[in-house]
Amino acid sequence: MRRLNQHIDKQGELIMKTETSAVDIDRNKGDFFYPEAHVRDAGIGLSERTIHYIADVKDDPAWVREYRLRGLKTFLEKPLPTHWASKDLEAIDFNKIRYYLSPGTEPKRSWEEVPDDIKRTFERLGIPEQERKFLAGVEAQFDSEAVYSNIKKAVGEQGVIFVGSREGLKNYPEIFRKWFGKVIPIADNKFSALNSAVFSGGSFIYVPPGVKVKHPLQAYFRINAENFGQFERTLIIADEGSEVTYMEGCTAPKFNTPTLHSAVVELVALKGAKIQYITVQNWASNVFNLVTKRGLAQENAEVKWIDCNIGSRLTMKYPSVIMKGRKARGEVLSIALANDGQHQDTGAKMIHAADETTSNIISKSISVGKGRATYRGLVHVPKHLKNCKNNTECDALLINATSRTDTYPAITVRGTGNAVQHEASVSQVSTEQIFYMQQRGLTEAQAMSLSVNGFVNDLVRQFPMEYSVELKRLIELEMEGSVG
Amino acid sequence: MPSVTNHELVKPESILSGPSESREFPDWFCDQQRAAWTEFESLPKPTRKDQAWRFANVGLLDLSPFKYGGTLTEKERATILEQSRGLEEVAGRMIFAGDELIERAVISDQLKKRGVIFQSLERAMVEHADLFRKHFMSQPAKLGSAKFAALHQALVSSGTFLYVPRGVEIELPIEIFHWLNGENTSAFPHLLLVTDELAKVTVIEHFRSVNEDAPGFACGVNDLVAGPGAKVTYVCAQNWADNVIALQMNSTIVDHDASAMSLNLHLGSRYSRFESLSRLIGEGGRSDLLAVAVAKNQQEFDARTLQDHVSPHTASDLLYKNALDDRARTIFGGLIRVEPHAHFTDAYQKVRNLLLSDDSEANSMPGLEILADNVRCTHGATSGQIGEEELFYLRARGIAVPVAQRLIVTGFLDEVVQRLNHPTIAEHLHRLIEEKFAENHG
Prior knowledge:
The structure holds two protein chains of two kinds.
Chain A: H1 2-18, E1 40-41, H2 48-57, H3 62-77, E2 101-102, H4 116-125, H5 127-132, E3 137-142, E4 145-151, H6 153-157, E5 161-164, H7 165-171, H8 173-179, H9 190-198, E6 203-207, E7 217-222, E8 233-238, E9 243-251, E10 259-261, E11 264-269, E12 274-282, E13 287-297, E14 302-309, E15 314-317, E16 320-323, E17 329-338, E18 343-352, E19 358-367, E20 372-381, E21 389-398, E22 404-414, E23 419-428, H10 431-439, H11 444-460, H12 465-479
Parallel strand pairs in A: 3-7, 6-8, 7-9, 8-11, 9-12, 10-13, 11-13, 12-14, 13-15, 13-16, 14-17, 15-18, 16-18, 17-19, 18-20, 19-21, 20-22, 21-23
Antiparallel strand pairs in A: 1-2, 3-4, 5-6
Chain B: H1 2-10, H2 27-42, H3 74-83, E1 92-97, E2 100-105, H4 109-113, E3 117-120, H5 121-127, H6 129-135, H7 146-155, E4 160-164, E5 174-180, E6 185-187, E7 190-195, E8 200-209, E9 216-226, E10 231-239, E11 244-254, E12 259-266, E13 271-280, E14 286-295, E15 300-309, E16 315-324, E17 329-338, E18 346-355, E19 361-370, E20 376-384, H8 388-396, H9 401-418, H10 423-441
Parallel strand pairs in B: 1-5, 4-7, 5-8, 6-9, 7-9, 8-10, 9-11, 10-12, 11-13, 12-14, 13-15, 14-16, 15-17, 16-18, 17-19, 18-20
Antiparallel strand pairs in B: 1-2, 3-4
Helix pairs in contact in B: 2-7, 5-6, 8-9, 9-10
């Protein structure tokens, strides 16, 4: 026990010395870790050997191994998308990343079976408390394997499947294989190809027809091993007329070398189903967060992404909805906060592929210090569709003279009978507002924080209560030290 | 006419054979042309993967069929002069056919006395070398067409140079015609307009073809320099024949307290790309960018703009409207960029597409890049169609559907033309728009 403590102290000291950012206060909650005890380690770098290693360890069926190899091939062939994306991507050294790590333990069903040090990690992350708050289930990922997964009995009795992606693949192959990789093909982009090659972890959810899952299902992700990318793969299928909400939050301890997170999330909402997917992303400020998220909405179905990006060094994430059936609906609500050294390159894609489909994008970004927030969007209404509607609103708030914001939408509309509108504005907190609040006894920082929270308030209100509280607190912390 | 034959012999057939060595330009200009040609050849062809060419039908940019404009016969010359009808009253006029200046209506002696220079490019580069060299092709082609700007510089052989000195206001517009004559001919229209402090001028350029169905290629540049407190209005009425491939690159420099207004009307061509760069370099500067496009059949209009706010306390306002019918396509790629320290920028950008058919396609990419705070920047893009209620209202008053549609569309486009605040030019542009609609419903 004493040795363990010494180890933490030593590491902690090392981190303190190299930390440069002044506004990392909020992340201290996640800024600790326990000694790594990885039984299975695929080593550093990426080659066919790495893929075979992962496939062997995970005991993949032949088609998955084949799928991984195709992913690797595509990944190696595709260039980095730097012709439109940030040149910062070139800072990722793909040969220095560990692509697979596992504690070597099977997912645990009961809390007692979870190892003590991992338990302590989760305690500090607050998972057991949230459990007590009647969240339907907790799927926590510690490095690449889910070590703890539990679904409330009630949900299980409704026939809802909520397991890790590996379990889903093993135990429910007929549903899993039918949809896996169908919404986001391997070659969608370089990073979806990478994920297809080395994926491990993530959730598999199936909601049977007509079942409305009352409580949000939740998963916590956390990166622990240095230089280790996380490549989780999530697949959610809501069968006809069902409803489900999924929440995902991320915190990560800090490391001094870049870490890569590249997930793929596929949602399938069958006829009349509703899926709501909520993310609060607060990765450490050295993480590259390159995620592909896409939902497929059949007739009368609805896919809604609520996406909040606070952390990471560079996030590139454009949640999409393909509206494939008549009257399908897609929605993206996005909040991004970019502080010093951060680039939040986020947005949305709405692909209308059937009549009477409607989509809505509301994006709010805040740039603080030298932070850069970018909205990148795509709205596509192909020809011979009738009565499709899209509404896009992007608002950006600039806090300091050095802050930066960009908006890059691309809108294609063919034919008559559709209506698309896009609006964006850039503003700042007015000095009058700040002055008014200072007159009433608030400090400048408090006034600024209040204004910023007001700016995002109408979006934050749409979050589940626990998340909106956490989010407001995160924004307050990020705003500290931004003025004066 | 042996001299004409000789002339044709020395002129290279294809534009891809490079600049002609026989032209009588100053050495420095010839050196620049050769350098530009090398640049043109070394730069890669644009592909759709280039952000600046996203959605564009780059396959149409095959230059191999195009050759230099030949010499006109007397009859052709007479026809062109007769058809060069624009505004009734002008302060000066130049008419170019295939890059050859065929007529010039000089400015008044009074304006000349006050120092106004209105000359062909080839004369200005000799007689006003310093002024000319300072401004000629001085702005980088930032919006994707660096290759075509180089091509233009390598092959330009004539054009207009207009200089308006300090405090001189030219009330009547200056009018310039550019004609494409014959099959697969090319033109490299050039306008360099420099205004000094508090000067005021309006220029309208007409782009037309003699032969209605003849394929052709136009690659033009117009550079406008608005000096401190100057007022510059520029109007482009593009009405090339329907098989013409056209590129036009504009740069507008707006100094402190100056204001520049440009309106581009796009009616003709098969593919027309228009790049407009507005740089606001002094406090109190203002730039208005207006455009109207009526796209029919398989026409494609590709507009790329940059409102570049370099100095604090500057304003820009962009309004582009497209009416699309048949299988036509439009692309709008616009960016408002607020450079670091350009605080108190007030920038606006709006693109509106009116789709009139099921096969038409409108692409909009309104962008913002803001690197300073205390700014007010807004953009909007809409795509829609004629409202049923509007149509019903007119039909209820006994107006037939095609006429009602035309009324609604012209009303929609009129908002832009009215912004010019120049009734004579507005009336002329109106007539051109009406003629284009008449082609369809005639």
